[in-house]
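Entry 14. Two folds queued back to back today. First construct below, sequence then structure tokens.
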Amino acid sequence: MRQRITFAVLFSVFSAGGWLACAPGEEVPTLDGGGPGVATSPVEEGSVGASDDAPPSTDGASSPRDADAGDLEDAQPDAERDEAAPDAAIGPGPIGVFGDTLCLNADGPGGEATYPRIERILGTGAIEAPSDGVYVPPRPHVEEREDDGAVGPHFAILAIEPTDVNLDLVPMTDGGDRSRTEIKLAPSSGGIHQPFKGHEGDTFVYTWRFRIDPGMRFASTFTHIHQIKANGGLYAEPPLITFTPVASGVMDVRHVGDLTTSSVGFTRLGSMPLAGVPGQWMDVREEITYSNTVGQYKLTIRDQLGAVALALDVAGLQMWRTGANHMRPKWGVYRFHNVSLNQDVDDYLYLANIGITHGATPTSTCR
């Protein structure tokens, strides 16, 4: 396995925050106890609880370039959006299919209903929010927020410990050990999302921005805020890739190879210090070649001012699941119950400008 890990720094912003002092292009060790290699976690994603895959529908498929005018609504050319005055309100980003890129953006409270809007783009079954009905009255765990002056309207993923549940709806008091609220590219067929499922040999680029609530706490057990997972096959349970913030103050980027049903043994591809990260928008570009022979993983995460916080370029990885129907991304909060997490507090992960591109060159920034 060959890899390069790059950290870049804006000292004017994070000199007190703890970013590593490394020049762009410099090879450095990862944090949290060493470089890439096999690591173990006491509790990771396993078979506990219901499967996260909704049964597929039987509707017909579509091509990325077959979108009609209805798929392109709310679009505004990227150049026009970039030329807006810095203090101008930021409107909703584009939504629908643009060439080889599928875009999802919020339009804020009072606009289109949140769940139908997400499923219109990512497909029926794209929302995993089993905790909505646990509370009286019910509490939607995927919400929308107004323009905050940085990214425009955006999604807010709610997580409440210890009362949230997983897909099996078993509360912690009855033995449930984890909770989940995520949005994903759905396994269902027939929507405009169909051509954006990853198949063996495909290259995909995933772009988005995320903001972690400043008061959110993490534990030694897992909290995944992004996953790449398989749909179908014997080895679909463990995630292929995760973004996993942990109590030691870093966010791991973890990889689990093929032919396993557990992610207890994972490879840490790199780690990003969390100091200074909560409260600001982080900008992600993730490129994956889905293959076990020429598999490759590239990642760049930038802070809100554009400085590179983490860069990875790893070749020779197992980036496919034997027997899978397809691979797809997920975003949200999936975590193991732990007393080290905030208790009875509304934790939020915020998401904006989600883009899925079939190929290595996005045809829209989704902004």
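Second construct, same run, same settings:
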Amino acid sequence: MRKASAVKGSSFKGSQIGSSKVGPSKPVPSKARRAKANKASLSEAPGVKVAAPFSFRGAGSEWPQLDRDGQKGRMARRSGETGRSMPDAEFHQRDRGIHPPAHTPVYKTSVLRSPRIPLWSLQNSLSEVTGPTFSPDELGPLDNDLLRNYAHDGEPIGEQIIVHGYVLDGNGTPLAGTLVEVWQANAGGRYRHRNDTYIAPIDPNFGGCGRMITDERGYYFFRTVKPGAYPFRNYVNSWRPAHIHFSVFGTAFVQRLITQMYFEGDPLIPHDSIIATVPDKTAAERLIARLDLNAALPLECLAYRFDIVLRGSRQTLFENKLQGS
């Protein structure tokens, strides 16, 4: 298969410009005073703050609590300042320019996969737009722990890591109750699939699949091993960089989005034929998870943060929605 793209995960750090009412009984503020007020307002802009290092749940410590001031709060304050009612969120037009075209010969399999005639628009059925709904009760206790959910007689081989982040809409509002599914190759670069014939061995204690539901803050996390790179039949010596596949479910089957997450510092990323199909390089950057030492477990494992943004200027690139999310 991420971008959410994340292309890298995105952090929403809002800024609020101060405003002054000007009326007949109130003099117009001087330019210097307006600049000073704006500077003070910007310095108090809400952002994302990460707590101290933590341990994986089940090891006696809690996951980090990230505080963020949502877009709705900023809009409400603006409404109070101006005395006018304002919408809770803004509409973000799709940026179709960040998506690769369906036919990209640099990625050879797209030649056969891409359509040759215009697509038909089909009416969705009621079941497609009203379900499914997901509950944490439907998930197993180890579904978000890929180190243990398939283990039989030991731990998987490879570098253990933590991946965490938020699912956000285009205005930075967290989306609770979102089903996030992940799948990946093992540390040697091989999938547990009968069609994968790479020479790397199958790990008997690693299945490579997991799932989780975002909490009320839109937050998700899971433990896994860092996947290995593997060759694929594109050119003579084409390799895929280490990556994890993501699926994000909305409130209906037709709202499923799929992407891939890559790792910061991977030297294979500039050589990947699939990433090369993305015309907007900033969009490709948003598919790369950043090293997060604040969430790492000292003397145990590193952590990577990958926020998934559904729409807007910081949108994660989704491979199954080339027309926009």
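Quick look at the second one. The chain has one domain: 36-116+125-309. Residues 1-29, 34-82 have pLDDT under 50 and may be disordered.
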